[in-house]
Amino acid sequence: MPLNLTYNTRPIPNRIFSIICIVLFFLLTSQPSFSQYSSKDSLSFVISKHRKKAKNLHSDTTYINTLIRLGGTLRFVKTDSLLSLSEEALALSKKGNYPLGISRAMNNIGDHFSDNGNTVRAITYYREALSLADSLKNIKLSTALLNDLATEYSYTGNYAKALESYLLAIDKASDISDNKMLSILNENIANLYAAQKEFEQALDFYKIVKQLNKDIGDEIFSAETMGNIASIHADMGNFDYAMYNVNQSIAIFEKKEIYDWLAYVYGVKGEIYLKQNKFKWALYWFDQSNILHENLQDERGKIDLLKGMAKAHLGLENYTVANTYALEGFEVSKKIKSLEGQMNCAEVLYELNKNKQDFERALGYHETFQKISDSLSRDENKRSLTLLKTKLNYDQQKKELIAKNEKTLAKQRNYITASIIILLILLGTTIPLYFNQKKQKKLNKLLKSKTEILKDREKELNEINKTKDKLFSIIGHDLRGPIGALQGILKLFSNGDLAKDDFIGFVPKLKTDVDHILFTLNNLLSWGHAQMNGTVTRPKINSIHKLVERNIQFLSELAAVKSIKIINQVTENAMGYFDENHIDIVIRNLISNAIKFTPENGLITIEAEENKAVWNIRVRDTGIGMDNDVMQKIFSDNSNITTYGTNNEKGTGLGLSLCKEMVLKNKGEIWVESLPKKGSTFYFTIPRVVKKYKKAS
């Protein structure tokens, strides 16, 4: 998973869209007449134009900052330009004695060497840049450099040093309340633990990240986090959680056109399918990621992609293609000195050559794999223990420092308290007591108000949790089954394992499943909207007869399958005052339930009777009925009863609960009368339109 590197925005390996925006910015603000040039030509033109205008470039800090910023945007697009622009900025900054420019230029040069696997030079530049930033007391830049330095330590396997730097950076970011950087740093620590297979610790840090992201309110931050969490759940074998998070992440990155992270999360989705041995689906998503990588220069990111594509092709027995990808991944890993990449690719090459019965090569790759694996395994326990020990030592030192400061503050508070007491004695006791009492009342009132707010929020959170649990229960219980069956049949047909004639035989079953899914989704969306946003009731005068007739026509095909006759006995002049959409849902669900529980050749009647200021609507069926226990539960908000109809039709367990909610919002009541094997009658009331006449004068 990618570690976050940048210091001024959410760290991202590279953003093509950002580059275009920056170039367009310079074109529109500096040189609006040259927008017809390509991005590359425009960038060169902006730089050359500044050179022509400036007499002493070393004293032009705007130009130096432009070089540094533009170099950074080219980091993963044209890495040579990153180096050349940053070296020019460094030389000018030194000549003009511009320490901030020196520090930022060195940061860029360190990034260049890091991306090319030259860890020693990268660390050297990062340290020098950090020393300068500290001397300038530029906490924001110091925090970013500590993050880069920690990331580089993690590449070398020095996880203890990496964790120490991350924790120091967290303290600095906390001092200036930089929530974005705090989110980045905690996420990098989580990824550090994930690399050591310590997933529980990683998820603990991700809880902190998610809370920070919520406070920040940036959906791109949240999408990056969900992509990394998906990778962790995939490694843990929690494929449902992994797929949920990666799909959320993909949707945001596609909408925002952030192609570097999109390449990464496509790869994560491919890895989720790969771990389930779904090689074709894995390969599909790996190919999507590979298309985006063609325009990126992110060799670290591509190693996992190449390994994944090799394993997918190996699973499909495409040995030649698998060998090509595995060898390419192995060479890239050697180039940037990634031991983990070499080990993983060597393992794939071993399996590949063993399957091809080229045992000599297989043995060679196995020895390479074993050698690197043993090296990493020897260090793994030490690294894990060191990682934990470093964090504990750091926390202990921090606690000791806090305790020391608290002692000092306690002494100061004692002196202040003594002074105040003397002053109060001199001023007397009456006035202070009066003001203290007044202040105490105000505080008590404020405390009471806040307590009430907390209670309301607790109640709201409990309701949201109940809603969430019910939502996932319905989705998992009632939608996944039919969709999975549909997917399975289509997969068999597309793979040629199911003949066309056999497939046609499944069409009625498929149509029934799709109708069920559609009906369930309609109910689910109506219920979800009501629960999440609160339903707004918009009552007006509506014809009950027309509403019933429309739903009978909508469900006529379903009734015809069981030869059930539905009779609308509601008079045409029956007019009610209600929200049409709400009562439409009620009538549709009640008729649908009646069809479900009525055997073939049955009868369903819908009637409306005037009763003072309301209409009493009845939906009567000749179905199987129900006992008292079932009748007590079917309208409960906490109930999720799902039963099968006379032809094994499946329900959602949501319809009657939704009916109750909609009727209540329209100032009505709903109840049922039923006997086993005698049928059921569902009643509900809605306000009646009452004509009022003025007295003649």
Explain this structure to me?
The protein has 697 residues and is an alpha+beta fold. Helix content is 72%, strand content 6%. The chain contains 24 helices and 7 strands. The strands form 2 sheets. Strands 2-4-5-7-6 form a 5-stranded mixed sheet. It has a two-stranded antiparallel sheet with strand order 1-3. Helix 5 packs parallel to helix 7 (139-156), helix 9 (179-195) packs antiparallel against helix 10 (199-216) and helix 21 (544-561) runs parallel beside helix 22. The longest helix is centred in the middle third of the chain and has 69 residues, at 359-427.
What sort of overall outline do the alpha carbons produce when their principal axes are compared? extended
Average pLDDT across residues? 80
State the secondary-structure class. Answer: alpha+beta
Radius of gyration, taken over Cα atoms and rounded to an integer in Å: 34 Å
Strand content: 5-15%
Q: Counting H and I runs of at least 4 residues, what is the number of helices?
A: 24
How helical, in percent, are the residues? over 70%
Q: Count the strands?
A: 7
| Main beta-sheet annotation | 5 strands, mixed
Strand order of the largest sheet: 2-4-5-7-6
First-residue to last-residue Cα separation: 84 Å
Low-confidence stretches: 5-40, 693-697
